[in-house]
């Protein structure tokens, strides 16, 4: 019996090991599946943009291009005023972000300092409503005002998307400032506006940066407002790419190159702000 | 203690007493100007027969636009399609988001890098990605059908048939939206208290038991926030659908958003479209109120 005992224990141990090993394999299979699902589209975008037309229409598909071929990118920039579209997107993005900060930072400070959280909910209305429901009256009103195909129209409308994100992110940052610091500034005669400009604002520089990046991304990605309100002179990248698609939808390489050029800056910026995305997209507005 | 040595003008003192209005006011005014006023204008337009291509002035028609919308088969179908699309585009990202949040809540090799890559779809430009999906959906040359053939599945016609167009569009939306769900639920998982789990382990609870009786109820409020925002976004979905199908084939993917867009900017029926905007807005608000109420109910339990 004494000889039998140890072997009787070992199988149990083996099963436990095996179970653990299986669980680990299963976990990594899940990780792999999730990552493949996420990354494949990006991989395919890069692949399409680097392949020749022959490779792109081959079946079975060519996954890794035979040699490095940048002609698709050259074609995008040569055949289209792509730099102009980029400049348009930059102007509208920077303009709407700047305006969202100028309006949003004091608002977030006021909401955080005087606990006016109802106001944060009011901003939520902008988040709630389908963009297209503003678009119809805007289309009429901006035409009446003679502001069709103008940067101002795009800057103002894109700001509507950026402002809520700026407010929600900055409320959190302003709440984190120690109240005694602000009281001390008031006692020293800074006044409410001086306290905001000289004490609170410099302390929230990281928050300002994060919210600026998010507002800029929202503007850069915006399609629905621009497709109606932009004209030939102000057309930003997403609309330009969409128009390219309607005309030359058989030629995949240049389209993929254009798509990647449009979305790459956003992906790089996303790396910087990933911790705050959920808050900026409204998760901060509803909690509590 | 000491008086401020600067002599303050009465108006400055007044402005400082009411500082909170000056901080919040401009943003609220800007939002009212850009959103509130246009919406009121929509109400006005919705009561008129108004086409922007004709030179005739708007004619007051009362509630006729609303009657026309509510009795129109096309609008009814658009509502049904929107609800079908929304149901799928909420369920799939929620499930996948929950699974991936559970994955990323554990410590493992390269977790930070992989999570960063995983988050990228949510911020990527929808129009740019829709181009790639369009190419991947191609029935004969598309890579998706090739991948299906590799695992022995029959090819699909994806966005090119009435039956499969909405599930295919939901696939695109799921790709974009899952990271957002993951991030919110992951935030919930990170805030979970440790003690109940330790106690459960001592009591010999299995992993599935811990998930059902502890993890899920505790992160439920976070899941509900995520579901609420996802529902609103799914109802609002426009970019991918418009770029990929423009409501087609036929009108098989014509959701309310696309229907609205076509009425206003293809047929120029501004009055009618404004009435639909208001109906759509009440639908979105109704769904949001319902979900917020539901969330209140569950979080007090």
What would you say this structure looks like, in words?
The complex is a heterodimer of chains A (288) and B (301). Chain A is mostly helical and 288 residues long. Chain A has two domains: 5-56; 74-286, MetI-like (MetI-like fold), CATH 1.10.3720. In chain A, 80% of the residues lie in helices and 0% in strands. Chain A has 14 helices and no strands. Chain A has helices at residues 5-50, 53-56, 71-79, 82-113, 117-128, 131-144, 151-175, 179-187, 191-203, 205-221, 224-229, 237-247, 252-273, 277-286. Chain A is flat and about 75 Å long. Chain A starts with a helix and ends with a helix. Chain B is mainly α and 301 residues long. Chain B has one domain: MetI-like fold. Helices cover 72% and strands 1% of the residues of chain B. Chain B contains 13 helices and two strands, in the order ααββααααααααααα. Chain B has helices spanning 10-17, 19-46, 64-70, 73-105, 111-123, 126-136, 143-150, 165-190, 195-202, 207-236, 239-244, 256-265, 270-299, and strands at residues 48-49, 59-60. A two-stranded antiparallel ribbon of chain B has the order 1-2. In chain B, helix 4 packs antiparallel against helix 10 (207-236). The longest helix of chain B is centred in the N-terminal third of the chain and has 33 residues, at 73-105. Chain B is globular. Chain B starts with 9 loop residues before the first helix and ends with a helix. The mean pLDDT of chain B is 87.
């Amino acid at each position: 019996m004494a000889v039998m005992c140890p072997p009787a224990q070992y199988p149990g141990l083996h099963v436990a090991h095996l179970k653990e090993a299986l669980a680990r394999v299963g976990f990594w299979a899940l990780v792999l599946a999730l990552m493949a699902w996420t990354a494949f589209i990006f991989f395919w975008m890069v692949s399409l943009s680097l392949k020749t037309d022959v490779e792109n229409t081959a079946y079975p598909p060519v996954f890794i291009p035979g040699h490095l071929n940048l002609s698709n990118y050259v074609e995008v920039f040569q055949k289209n005023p792509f730099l102009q579209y980029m400049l348009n997107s930059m102007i509208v993005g920077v303009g709407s972000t700047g305006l969202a900060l100028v309006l949003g930072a004091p608002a977030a400070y006021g909401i955080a300092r005087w606990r006016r959280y109802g106001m944060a909910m009011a901003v939520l209305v902008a988040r709630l409503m389908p963009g297209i429901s503003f678009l119809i009256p805007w289309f009429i009103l901006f035409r009446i005002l003679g502001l069709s195909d103008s940067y101002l129209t795009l800057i103002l409308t894109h700001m509507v998307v950026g402002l809520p994100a700026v407010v929600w992110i900055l409320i959190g940052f302003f709440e984190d400032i120690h109240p005694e610091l602000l009281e001390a500034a008031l006692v020293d005669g800074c006044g409410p506006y001086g306290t905001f400009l000289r004490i609170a604002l410099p302390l929230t520089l990281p928050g300002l940066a994060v919210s600026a990046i998010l507002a800029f991304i929202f503007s850069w990605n915006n399609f629905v407002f621009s497709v109606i309100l932009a004209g030939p002179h102000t057309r930003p990248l997403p609309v330009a790419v969409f128009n390219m698609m309607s005309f030359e939808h058989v030629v995949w390489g240049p389209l993929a190159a254009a798509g990647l050029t449009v979305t790459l800056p956003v992906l790089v910026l996303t790396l910087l702000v990933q911790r705050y995305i959920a808050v900026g997209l409204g998760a901060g507005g509803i909690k509590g | 203690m000491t008086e401020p040595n600067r002599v303050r003008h009465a108006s400055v003192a007044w402005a400082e007493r009411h500082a909170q209005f000056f901080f919040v006011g401009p943003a609220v005014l800007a939002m009212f100007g850009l959103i509130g006023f246009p919406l009121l204008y929509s109400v006005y337009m919705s009561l008129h027969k108004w086409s922007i291509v004709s030179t005739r002035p708007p004619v007051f028609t009362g509630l006729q636009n609303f009657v026309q919308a509510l009795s129109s088969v096309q609008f009814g179908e658009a509502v049904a399609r929107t609800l079908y699309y929304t149901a799928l585009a909420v369920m799939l990202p929620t499930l996948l988001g929950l699974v991936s949040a559970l994955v990323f809540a554990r410590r493992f090799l390269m977790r930070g890098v992989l999570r960063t890559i995983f988050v990228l779809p949510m911020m990527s430009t929808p129009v740019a990605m829709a181009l790639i999906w369009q190419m991947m959906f191609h029935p004969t040359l598309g890579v998706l059908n090739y991948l299906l053939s590799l695992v022995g599945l029959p090819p699909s016609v994806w966005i090119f048939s009435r039956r499969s167009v909405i599930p295919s569009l939901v696939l695109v939306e799921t790709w974009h939206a899952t990271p957002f769900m993951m991030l919110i639920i992951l935030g919930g998982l990170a805030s979970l208290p440790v003690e109940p789990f330790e106690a459960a382990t001592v009591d010999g609870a299995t992993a599935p038991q811990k998930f059902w009786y502890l993890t899920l109820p505790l992160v439920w409020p976070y899941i509900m926030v995520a579901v609420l925002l996802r529902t609103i976004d799914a109802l609002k979905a426009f970019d991918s659908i418009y770029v990929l199908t423009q409501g087609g084939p036929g009108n098989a993917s014509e959701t309310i958003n696309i229907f609205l867009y076509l009425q206003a900017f293809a047929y120029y029926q501004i009055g009618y479209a404004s009435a639909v905007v208001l109906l759509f807005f009440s639908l979105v608000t109704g769904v949001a109120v319902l979900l917020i109420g539901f969330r209140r109910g569950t979080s007090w339990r």
